[in-house]
Amino acid sequence: MHKTRTDQQVLGTQKIPTSSIQRYIRFTLPILIGITALSVPPLFLRGYLLDVVILIVFWSFLGSAWNLLSGLAGQFSFGHAAFFGIGAYTSTVLLVRYGINPWVGMLFGAGLAALAGSLLGFLCWRYGVRGPYFALTTFAFAEVLRLFTNNWTFTNRSLGLQVPLIGGNSLLAFQFELDKRPYYWIIVAFLLMALGTTIFIERSRTGYFLRAIRDDEDAAAALGIPIMRYKIVAMAVSAALTAMGGTFYAQYMFYIDPTIVFGAHVSVDILMRPLVGGVGTPLGPVIGGILLTPLGEVARALVRTPPEFLPFADFIRGRSGLDGLLLGIILIIVILKVPQGVIGWCEYRWRQR
Amino acid sequence: MKRLSFRTWRQWIAVGSALLSTVILVLWFSEELGTWWATQNLVLRQSIVTGLLMGGVYGLAALGLTLIFGVLGIINFAHGTIISMGMYLTFVLFSTYDIDPYLSLAIVAPTLFFVGILMYRLLLRQTMTGPAHNQLLVTLGLALIIENILLLVFRADPRTVRPSYSSSGFFLGDTYISLPRLLAFLFALLLGVMLYTFLRTTQTGRAIRAAAQDRIGAQLVGIPVSRIEALTLGIGTAAGGAAGTLIMPFFTVTPTTGATFNITAFVIVVLGGMGNVAGAVLGGLIVGLVEALGAVFLPGSTKQIGVFLLFILLLLFRPSGLFGRGHYA
Amino acid sequence: MLLEVEHVSHQFGGLWALRDVSLQVPEGALVAIIGPNGAGKTTLFNCIAGALRPTRGQIRFAGRRIDGLPPYKIARLGLTRTFQLTRPFHSLSVYENVLVGTLARFHSKSRAEAKAKEILQFVGLADRAQRLASQLTTADRKRLELARALATQPKLLLLDEVMSGLTPTETGSLERLVRTIRDTGVTIVLIEHVMRVVMGLAEQAFVLHHGQLIAAGPPQEIVRNRTVLEAYLGEELHLADGRAD
User: Fold this and answer.
1) Residues 283-312, chain B, touching A (beta carbon < 8 A)
2) DSSP code at position C207
3) Which of A160, A114, A117 is nearest to A260 (CA)?
4) CB spacing of A6 vs B129 below 8 angstroms
């Protein structure tokens, strides 16, 4: 093709004159601790605000999972909704039809997603489907799953599935109807797990190999790295984590249907956070989540009850689409102006001073 | 780099006549059989006809996409929303100004042409020299923007355009052919042929092909590549918009209608060979046929799975499509 | 013989890029593959390194058939290649680039780190170890490419036009480095255009033209070979004294 890569524009990586490991030791550890500390105050929130915070962490978690495959290993996925949905449907179907505990179902879902992802990845990478074509294939995969569950009686078709309420809070049953705070602890734990996994992998041999594969697959192969193996590992871990998020969602919302969990908007939402925050950096998804999720909520609130002083208040009241519009605009601005995301940009400026 | 050669012409004619003869054979053969079989076959024949007619329009929609891909190397995720725009514009022209949809082609196509140029100038030009992901993401962002603007303006209610002749049709034997569908098919084919001829014979067309084959080389011989790329994007979006207009008389549009076209268009592009203009038209016919036949045999929306699976399988095992990549990619 | 190329031919579509090429490289040798542009040198490299599977013929490394093996397996056997256009891992530092290579070779992380530092010292990049690979000068990039290849502890090194794009001074110092590498026991096969380098470094030269091996022998003899001269210059020659520049 007729494209050349310039150093500036590689997604997620920007000119950093020092070794990336040094950077992480200096910044990430204290920030991780900071996050853990910061996650305490929201426990005092209630109602709607608590929901927003839960969603922030939730999307950051999913973005982190995506980041492993698409940021660290550089295999851009457009269809992570597939794994999300696999997780959601596996645990919910097992619960609804066979009474299997959702935590156990979650493990099954994660395993199934890892398997599906590995298979998909293997087929694609074996047959030379790379880059944007790989992205398109993952997208098609998610759509296939959506249509499949939409027409399969086993998954209740387009009617979707409801998680049976047991009335009250139960950690065992993974439901907290009365007091939602445990959802928050759980999702924070998930996030820390994802972040921990990311950082651990990054510093390990696997991390080096994945980044080498991301930067130049053929050069990595020429050094003796079995690239297929490592890409599949990245894919499996990423898919498994995403599936866990799917189960969480099902238990949090109590209802899933094919479009809600397999829809393209899920894939887009998943990748937006890391993209805005900084693809390939462990904290990118978190920053992205903190920035984007409240924005989405504000946009939705705005169209529900627009403030009177706005000239077009009457026009937009009750209409939907503002959040999606903002998302699209942000996406374009980020890609064109700040492809390395917030974190990458900050590092760049820090270097310049 | 495949040069456009007699071989492609022959391929085109060969496959086209194979398809045509299959259809004729089926129609002819069916006439000789009993009533029961004839009835069963009627459904089949009907869906073949409908499928082919729809396929022509699919081809036009995919034509724009394959051209954009062939010349710019851009996988335009926003193509579906472009088609939506064409559809909504037709709707507005019809419901507010009573303009017949086929006449509004003359307004829709140029409008979307300029939209395409704008797209290129404002957004896509900057991504031409970066990783391919960026382009995909920018077009994705654009798709989001357009879809949501349509949602904000028109809401989610399905809109239709029903001119007086929208339910007329005629019988060919015992197969019903709906007039709007036939017109869409004919117009699409006409536009397709016009586009193809334009690319093959005119100077600009040749410049486009040159820019597609070798961007830098074309620049060196004085071809204003940026302008050519803008032009190509404009033509591509105009084709997409035109496809939208043509189907309005027998379709309904919601903000998400375009998205459904998106993946169909992608499948056709891969099937026909990325950048292969003739392949897009033929691929459109094939996909239209597959979809229609699928609707007969498979329940619900399952038929779409076939299309998606076909897409994945093609990407894996025959990415150059049935007819080979165009003389571009 | 460490490397044996036996009757290798390779076809791209309708074009035969390589036609019945056979050559042998003994252990410890430093040989060059030369020829005019388009002769098939890089294709030959790609076949040897596993990036391509030769349409016909066999390739043996240390007695073992390697044609058709994936590149990473061939690298693990001890045959490493560099790329003509240097391909550093741009988001990693110089040190990390080499580390990737040593990590691929050694199980122990500490050994890998130590070895990486050692190699950087050896090629002379130690003082720039923390710099981002994408920020290096061309000459340093070549060194990095070499360092990374060395990290895999190769028995045989395929160097693809490693001297291209360098000033004469830079060429000279890189030449010395290559010779030093050979002296540590690594067999080296070069593709080169810079004749001065070929004359100075190579013990044997193999000349490719239109995919065929047209001459083999010590560089001093090769440059006098009429067939070779015609290949490079493309026409009948009448030389006064039979020497090429």
Assistant:
1) 299-302, 304-305, 308-309, 311-312
2) E
3) A160
4) yes
Contact B135, A5 (CB under 8 A): no
Distance CA C245, CA C228 (A): 13
C-alpha dist (Å) from residue B267 to B286, B305, C114? 11, 12, 52
Kindly give, in sequence order, each residue whose CB lies less than 8 Å from that of residue A256, ignoring residues fewer than 6 positions away: A88, A89, A92, A160, A161, A249, A250
Candidate from B224-233, B239-248, C45-54, C232-241 with smallest mean pLDDT = C232-241
ipTM: 0.85
User: A-contacting residues of B 251-270, CB under 8 Å?
Assistant: 255, 259, 263, 266
pLDDT in tens, A29-51: 666 777 776 667 666 767 777 88
Whether C89 sits inside 8 A of A227 (CB atoms) is no
Residue A16, domain member (yes or no): no
The pLDDT tens digits for A127-153 are 888 888 898 889 989 988 998 898 888
Does any domain span residue A103? yes
CA distance A258 to A155: 9
**Distance set, CA A276 to CA A170, A212, A272, C8 (Å):** 36, 23, 6, 51
Query: Helix/strand/coil (H, E, C) string of B238-250?
Result: HHHHHHHHHHHHH
Average pLDDT over residues B303-310: 72
Q: Which of B133, B142, B309 lies nearest to residue A132, judging by beta carbons?
A: B133
Residue C216 φ then ψ, to 5°: -150, 140
| A19 touches C at CB < 8 Å | yes
Query: Which of B64-73, B158-167, B198-207, C144-153 tops mean pLDDT?
Result: C144-153
Q: What is the pLDDT of residues B280-292, one digit of tens each?
A: 888 888 888 888 8
Residue A296 lies in a domain: no
Domain count, chain A: 1
Q: Exposed, middle or buried: residue A337 (CB in 10 Å: 0-12, 13-18, 19+)?
A: exposed
Residue C217 has pLDDT above 50, yes or no: yes
Contact C91 A209 (CB under 8 A): no
Alpha carbons A141 and A122: distance in angstroms, whole number = 14
Instruction: Give residue A75's Cα distance to chain centre.
Output: 14
Global pTM reads 0.84
B276, two tokens: 């292969």
* β-strand partners of C61: C3, C64
- Compute the residue count for chain C: 245
Domain coordinates in residue numbering, chain B: 64-161+180-255, 256-323
Q: Is position A348 within any domain? A: no
Q: How many CA atoms lie within 13 A of C17 on its CB side?
A: 18
B137 vs A129, A136, A331: nearest CB: A331
Domain span including residue A160: 46-274
Distance CA A342, CA A291 (A): 10
Half-sphere exposure of C52 (CA within 13 A, CB side): 20
pLDDT tens string C195-208: 788 888 889 999 88
Token couple for A115: 């398997």
Structure confidence at residue B8 (pLDDT):
57
Range with the lowest mean pLDDT among B174-183, C86-95, C234-243?
Answer: C234-243
**Window 42-101 of B, Cβ < 8 Å to A:** 73, 75
